[in-house]
Amino acid sequence: MALSLRNMTQAECVSLIEQSRYGHLACCSNDQPYIVPVYFSYDKGILYSFSMPGQKVDWMRANNKVCLQIDHVSNVGWQSVIVMGKYEEFPDTDLLHSERLHAWSLLQRHSDWWEMGSLKPEPQAARSHSPHVFYGILIREMAGRAALSSDGTAKTV
């Protein structure tokens, strides 16, 4: 049973991103890659996520070029999308407060959105500063591949 491999269209890539909320985020510092699982939400060309301060955030602050890999695997094949983008942090400042709230509103649509960030953020007073880092990945380019069983029968992938 053979798999038929093909490139995904941009519309198919966006569709997979819109249907997904989990991926693997890659960043790099001093020629050393670092990959971590993240939950995200997508809206209008931006992937929104959040984290507690740590290595991932430090590295993305130092080098804002990042990559996110998203996939869907089934018993008849798989799809995978790679997003190349730019990290942008949404600190709790007057200038970016609305973007931060937008990210939060998108992410909290799912009850477990905060699990990979370690601690669920509590609502903060308007002038209070939370240690939680809300950020976006501004998509610069994306590409995807898909493989499907050519005979349409179930296959363990």
UniProtKB/TrEMBL annotation:
Sorted UniProt keywords: Plasmid
Pfam families listed in its UniProt record: Pyridox_ox_2 (PF12900)
Alphabetized InterPro entries for the sequence: Pyridox_Oxase-rel, Split_barrel_FMN-bd
SUPFAM superfamilies, per the entry: FMN-binding split barrel
Highest rank taxon of the organism: Bacteria
Protein name in UniProt: Pyridoxamine 5'-phosphate oxidase-like protein
Species of origin: Rhizobium gallicum bv. gallicum R602sp
